[in-house]
From TrEMBL:
Gene3D superfamilies: PPM-type phosphatase domain. Residues 55-349 form the PPM-type phosphatase domain. It comes from Microthlaspi erraticum. The keyword Ribonucleoprotein does not apply. Signal peptide: none annotated. Keywords: Hydrolase, Magnesium, Manganese, Metal-binding, Protein phosphatase. Its cofactor is Mn(2+); Mg(2+). Belongs to the PP2C family. GO terms for molecular function: metal ion binding; protein serine/threonine phosphatase activity. Coiled coil: none annotated. This is protein-serine/threonine phosphatase. SMART domains: PP2Cc.
């Protein structure tokens, strides 16, 4: 079960727009964390911080608000398991947001591997006859991944709070991640980035299925928690419809999401870093999953997004084309507003040779938003 987990990283060197080897930086950080914690977690596989291949496409573009606070990762061969892949989108905010998002990106995968191993081992010790190949294997595996994610997010947030070099008191980051293990995907969401699945309906049309909830402060369950913690939720006069979280007696920090890492100035007033964890079994009708930061979803609908990706002839260019389409849409729909950072990961669920041409479905789509 743990065979190969002590092997070292194999890094796919993909340079970002600034010429920095962001993928290697992320992988090296994971290796350091694993070594520091004295874990047998060094993992083989390929890490992409920006770049593409035929199984996944990654792209990020800086907006008009300063440094790009988004970052992403795709880790093939996650945990030295050939049938596992880890994908994530991290959207920072605040003065130190770009540092926070990178820190969360760099620490979350290795921490998740650690907790997954530990939880899996504990489950096996408690029940030596636990059969992951039996009829209840999906429930058992989901519970193990859910517990691993809950522990990971708690530890990542705690470590971030005590980080010596990053001031996350008024800064934070969202984290939307997916682990694919065989024919099952496990989705963990902290914040307002979104995961959307492209699948074929019973009528034969390519339709969008939203896999995650945008954790905005005005969601009933989120608003209730915030108010119970003496936080406030309201919109500014010049931003009608944009609900934000505020401290009880001050108009700060004004967060537009209800869950995030960091932002300790508002944590006692209802902001949490607890993830929503779900699973989905992949069917032959499921073609790909898009993970994207909220800047894209502000101007592109779920259906529009899958149409853009499905109509892209070359898979490695899919994420870039989606971001470019969102940039054009922003200039038309939100003229006068500074464009947000935009990042996307497109995870293709079947090999290009085994799946039918997605473009065949684009002309027969139904609206699904």
């Amino acid at each position: 079960m743990f065979n190969g987990l002590v092997r070292s990283f194999s890094i796919k060197r993909v340079k970002n727009n600034n010429g920095n080897n962001d993928a290697k930086e992320a992988a090296d950080e994971m290796a350091r964390e694993a070594k520091k914690k004295e874990l047998i977690l060094k993992s083989c596989g390929y890490v992409y911080a920006e770049g593409s291949n035929n199984s996944a496409s990654v792209f990020s573009k800086r907006g008009e608000k300063g440094v790009n606070q988004d970052c992403a990762i795709v880790w093939e061969g996650f945990g030295c398991q050939e049938d596992m892949i880890f994908c994530g989108i991290f959207d920072g905010h605040g003065p130190w947001g770009h540092y926070v998002s990178k820190q969360v990106r760099n620490s979350m995968p290795s921490s998740l591997l650690c907790h997954w191993q530990k939880t899996l081992a504990e489950a096996t010790l408690l029940d030596p006859e636990l059969d992951f190949e039996g009829s209840d294997k999906s429930l058992s595996r989901f519970d193990i991944w859910k517990q691993s994610y809950l522990k990971t997010c708690a530890s990542v947030d705690q470590e971030l709070e005590h980080h010596r070099k990053i001031d996350s008191y008024n800064s934070g980051s969202t984290a939307l991640t997916i682990v694919r293990q065989g024919e099952v995907i496990y989705v963990s969401n902290v914040g307002d980035s979104r995961a959307v699945l492209a699948t074929v309906s019973d009528e034969g049309s390519l339709v969008a299925v939203q896999l995650t909830l945008d954790f905005k402060p005005n969601l009933p369950q989120e608003k209730e928690r915030i108010i119970e913690c003496n936080g406030r939720v309201f919109c500014l006069k010049d931003e009608p419809g944009v609900h934000r979280v505020w401290q009880p007696d001050a108009e700060t920090p004004g967060l537009a999401m209800s869950r995030a890492f960091g932002d300790y100035c508002i944590k006692e007033y209802g902001l949490v870093s607890v993830p929503e964890v779900t699973q989905r079994h992949i069917s032959p009708k499921d073609h790909f999953i898009i993970l994207a930061s909220d800047g894209i979803w502000d101007v592109i609908s779920n259906q529009e997004a899958i149409e853009v990706v499905s109509s892209t002839a070359e898979r490695p260019k899919a994420a870039k084309r989606l971001v470019e389409q969102a940039v054009r849409a922003w200039k038309k729909k939100r003229r006068g507003y500074a464009m947000d950072d935009m990042s996307a990961v497109c995870l293709f669920l079947h090999s290009s040779s085994s799946s039918s041409s997605l473009s065949e479905h684009v002309h027969h789509v139904t609206t699904y938003k």
